[in-house]
Amino acid sequence: xxTVIGEALVDVLSGGMSAPESYVGGxxxxxxxxxxxxxxxxxxxxRYGDDEYGRMIHEHLRANDVLEVLPPDGLPTSTxxxxxxxxxxxxxxxxxVWDLSGFGAVAPRALDDAQLLxxxxxxxxxxxxxxxxxxxxxxxxxxxxISFDPNVRPxxxxxxxxAVAQVERFVELSDVVRASDSDLEWLYPHRSVEETxxxxxxxxxxxxxxxxxxxxxxxxxAGGPARAEAPVVDVVDSVGAGDSFMAALLSALVDRELxxxxxxxxxxxxxxxxxxxxxSYAARAAAVTVSRAxxxxxxxxxxx
Length: 304
Hints:
Layout: E1 2-5, E2 9-15, E3 18-25, H1 27-37, E4 42-45, H2 52-63, E5 66-68, E6 79-84, E7 90-95, H3 107-111, E8 116-120, H4 129-140, E9 145-149, H5 160-173, E10 176-180, H6 181-187, H7 193-201, E11 207-211, E12 217-221, E13 224-227, H8 241-255, H9 264-268, H10 272-290
Parallel strand pairs: 1-4, 1-8, 2-6, 4-5, 8-9, 9-10, 10-11
Antiparallel strand pairs: 2-3, 6-7, 11-12, 12-13
Helix pairs in contact: 1-8, 8-10
């Protein structure tokens, strides 16, 4: 079983002359759906309210065969109101609640049989839920592969130094880390993206990946770096592209039987050539997502 813990929300996107469109989203939830569409059993740990937007999220998870362990709560469902620029990138204004106070009762069901635990984004930063997420990662690490995507949202990171420290707490516990070049430049403006990836790799992960949008991903394992090309496609918007990349990357590791603590040594022995193949697959998955509206990750048969 694969477990994803993090925020679920509704993206309300506007741009140009068209009316706003609502899409179910949230980086971790997108990864959960992406993994399920690629054929993996997935449990999602997140929260939403008992309201119209919450029902949208519930129906989306159910339609994609993602198992939930927490019921709706009495708080409003989180939203992200985004404005698309001419190239399809979104700038967001969040109205978000992140509280997993009911997680303790379902933690064994969600974590104890997990081969992989993925988290990141706002869930790793915003309290009070971030503390719960960090505790879940510590609980799962002895038996599960840990993956992390900081998906930096500066509006939730008023203290830059503490934001960096919190991100590094997760990096140190992770086996696989993915971040965009803009994430890494915001966190560490004094050094290059590649230098940060090297520094993170030395903290303990087996693989650190930086994504550069249309310039393709670059990754680092103990044996050295690898790069993959990003396919050329007509871009509708870039919403959820990094999440689709992350889901496909993790799916490739599952397919290669590299998840679970028993395979941690094998994961650390991954060669640059093998990593390059994985990066290429993940980049092709992301390319499918940017070719259509919203965070809409591909099914396995849609990845060329």
